[in-house]
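Minutes, project check-in
Item: structure for the 264-residue chain
Input as provided by the requester:
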Amino acid sequence: MANETQIKSGGQISGSVLFYSKPEPLSPDLHKGLGVKRMDGPFGFARTGHAVPLAVTEFSMAALTSPIIFVGEDKTPLAVMGLNADENIFLRDDGLFEAGIYVPAYIRRYPFVFANDDAAQQSILCIDRNAEFIVEGGDLAFFNDDNSPTEYTQNCIEFCNNYEVERQKTMNFVALLKELDLFEVKTATHTQVNEDGSMGEPQIVAEYFGVSETKLNALAPDKLAELRDSGALTQIYAHLISLFGWDRLIALQIYRNSELLAAQ
């Protein structure tokens, strides 16, 4: 499976990955003495993440707080965390998420990410050197005095390895939905109430790919049984249920806008 980034000849890293502005292969030569400092609000970097990649095994948990959509030719699943580009509506000013919001593993693994090393034919652990909480003499060091990875770094490597396994499961899940031709274009809309109490014209909030309930219900019984037995059917229903979350997001955005107007 291809990673999100690649290390080309000469050590340069290619690929654009949400939140990561300066990924570097983690090594004692470059990062000895560096570590992560503890912060009360460590998620400030995710402020621009209005739509965040999601693994299929996270669907059931994420569905409680975010619409789950599929985008692009690859039908990448995303948790929608805001209606405006580069605005995560669930993230507070202090760098913490609102209580009860599910935080995707994609966010929780930051500042670590794997990259494919073309020359060595292996995956290399990288960090975003621009992460604000990576500092000299941090509370959680990357390396021991003998240049071996600390327990903290080993735990992060394990988390990233597990994340890659989940990414492969997600790719297989999407491939299955494509094979069964279950995707359709969907829209989320909002109808504003005019000052006189009448209803305005519906406005399109978002356009995306989602599972068609009509196509799903038309599947042959053996195909439905296959989806059920593999666990895919549970995740499909989680996705469909999550789409009711558009109304919540819209209501939150309207409330946020009214707060900003009142503060002016």
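Outcome recorded: The first strand starts at residue 5 and ends at 7.
No further action items on this chain.
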